[in-house]
Structures are given as structure tokens and as C-alpha cells.
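User:
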Amino acid sequence: MNIRDEWRQLSASIDELEREIEYFSSLCPSPRMCRFLIVAEDHRLGKHTGVDFIALCRAVWKTLFYGKRQGASTIAMQLTRTITGNHDRTVRRKALEMLLAPRLTRYVSKERLPLLYLWCGYYGWKMNGFQQACQRLDLDPSSMTLQEDAELVARLKYPQPRECNSKRMKTIRARGQYLIERLDLHDPGFPR
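Assistant: Predicted structure:
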């Protein structure tokens, strides 16, 4: 499939997500969850065009010289990967994300990207998207606490397995606490 066809499919999927969010507007991720996502995954969101070359260089450097794999995907790249369903660990897939992400940031405002990703992201077993995650975890989107918001966003990095043991829950809780601290550091006046 060529880049034009990939883009047509991606933009059609984005339009469908927008219609879903409009329909379920009272059950959407909160602005606080969007901020958690930005400070954790893409704190330079407003400073790049869909690909964060600083993060990319850092990840390549750490991989080549320290043998540590690190992520460099922006929210636009992660949204592209989620929508296309392509999770192959290949250079081709990463290159495709890097080609589509700038188009995506021109098609959708950068302020909207976190909401779209939170809406369709994978939070764990039987939690494909925000609605399923809230149902499975028995969360009410209109009254989630700071900790619940943070821990739900944490599941994007550490998806909850079918049988969630205490070690994974400890990881999710620790990541949630980390997100709260990052929010306080980057946005000290952001409402809790």
C-alpha cells in the first residue's frame, strides 16, 4: 500500500473517531488526562510537526551506545500506529509513522491529538479504547480522581493483562504517581 492510500485510511479513521467523540462527548477523557499524556509521552508536542527529532536522536544514541531501547514516538505517531494496527517492530513501520504523523498534525490540531489517542488507545486486556477501559475498571469519566486519571493513562505504557498481579498493579500505580509529579513539575498551576 502506498502513502496516499495509508493516509486516506488514516484520515477516514480520524473522522470516524471525531464522530464517536462528538456523540459520546459527556464520556470523554478529561483535559487533565490529556495533560498527563502530554507531559509523559510528548512534552514537546507544541514544538514539533509530528516527529520529535530530539527524542529520536536520543533514542538512537541510547540504543547504539548504551544498548538501551527507548521510545521516541510522539502522540501523533502513537495515534497513527494505534489506528493502522501496525505494531511491527520494523524500520518500515517507523518510517511510515514518521511520514504520516506530520500530515496528521496538519489535519488535526495538536490540542486534539491527545484526546483522540486516549479515546482509541489500548489500556489492556478487553480495554481497547477509553470506553472499554472505564467499563472494565468501573470508572465514571465524569468523576474520576486525580489518581484514577493518572493510572488510566499509565496503562497506555503498561497495559493491564487479563490476570493483573500485584507487581503489574504496583508498576501502574508508580507510573501514575510519576505522571502526577510530572504534571506538577511542568504545569504547577494546572487544576487538580
